[in-house]
Amino acid sequence: MRNRILSLVIACSALVMLPIISSSAQTRGKIKADVPFEFVAGGKVLSAGTYTIERLAYNNPEKLIIRSADNHTSALLAVNRVPLSKSPTETDLVFNKVGDTYFLRDIKVEGITLGSQLPKTKDEKHLERSESAAGEAVIIHAETRGF
């Protein structure tokens, strides 16, 4: 009888803890976006497609990973956290288009006043010099889960 009561208490405790564990796992957050063009991110050229972006480690918002939907392509992103003048109302990926090349520049998450900015690569700077102009901003709206 005593073992049965103890088993019941343990089972009930596990059921109570399950939503807490589940919700804390979701706070890691993911961004999902359909990018309709080839682009450069993390020093890699990524083809057009669906991508997810998330933190590499929950406690480090400056290291992100971008993955293709099929998990065949990924790149590490070292970003700088930058304050935004106002809280975004949508989650956006901002690309810098220089000539025919798109570079992932900024990640802005709905409701968060700190953005993630990727430093310009040597190739991006070189292209801007050769084009004699700064790039054009191209914005792709994204979905956010768990931020």
Protein described:
- The protein has a 9-stranded antiparallel beta sheet. The chain has a two-stranded antiparallel ribbon with strand order 2-3.
- It contains 2 helices and 11 strands; from the N terminus they run αββββββββββαβ.
- The protein has one domain (28-145).
- It has 147 residues and is α+β, with helices and mostly antiparallel strands.
- Strand 2 (39-41) and strand 3 (44-46) form a beta hairpin.
- The N and C termini lie far apart (45 Å).
- Residues 14-27 have low confidence and may be disordered.
How does the SSE layout of this entry go?
Elements: H1 2-26, E1 30-35, E2 39-41, E3 44-46, E4 49-57, E5 60-68, E6 74-78, E7 80-83, E8 91-98, E9 101-108, E10 114-117, H2 122-131, E11 136-145
Instruction: Give the N-to-C terminal Cα separation.
Output: 45 Å
The number of helical elements comes to 2
Shape: globular
Largest sheet: 9 strands, antiparallel
Estimate what percentage of residues fall within beta strands. over 45%
Class by alpha and beta content = alpha+beta
Helix content range of the residues, please? 10-25%
Order of helices and strands: HEEEEEEEEEEHE
Mean pLDDT: 84
Strand arrangement in the largest pleated sheet: 6-5-4-1-11-8-9-10-7
Rg value: 20 Å
Number of strands: 11
